[in-house]
């Protein structure tokens, strides 16, 4: 699964749900949480269910961000998700505990959002849950939970590094947080580039103008693709000869490099 861009779409907006079909985001997240007022939750579920049957997003990943598991609305959200075959995954806001029960109950992949103090200190337990194959975080809710300053946590390298470290430790995708300043596309690009250097594979986005930038930044360059092809060919030839590590361009190449190369090649057919 490639998740260079994950676009949030308000489930209360028929116009935006329909528009998402033609956008180039790798993954769509239909939002039943923050984007929907409390009095419109049921209306949003009905609209989403109707349009899921009517529209076709192809092979793209379709997710639903449910309401907090502490709220009764989350159970109604999960009932909807369980009925909809097109939905691939559940995005869980303010995740704070083990989530295997969600995967066992629905069969859908799980993407937890680390957004509270408790969620941050229990992040490892959360991502170890059955069915979790990606993780992201939310700075606004996290800073509120910690009693800190949003602007400081937005640039906090510890949080950024910790989230990606937990993800990589359990071989799941780390997806960077949303960027709220829609007019500052250069700032968005810069944050994407910084996230990629830390090890993130993509970005959660909230506006169509951010999609192409995220897709570009989190895609490998032509040089990286050529390197990957050479590594795969050389490594697989060496493996046939019983060798597990080889020398390529005067550098050691082993199974780790081979895995990196295989992931890079996934982008060729996009």
From TrEMBL:
This is CoA ester lyase. The keyword Magnesium applies. GO terms for biological process: oxaloacetate metabolic process. One of its GO terms (molecular function) is lyase activity. It comes from the Archaea. It holds the Pfam family HpcH_HpaI. Residues 4-208 form the HpcH/HpaI aldolase/citrate lyase domain. InterPro entries: Aldolase/citrate-lyase_domain, Citrate_lyase_beta/mcl1/mcl2, Pyrv/PenolPyrv_kinase-like_dom, Pyrv_kinase-like_dom_sf. Keywords: Lyase, Magnesium, Metal-binding. The keyword Magnesium applies. Its cofactor is Mg(2+).
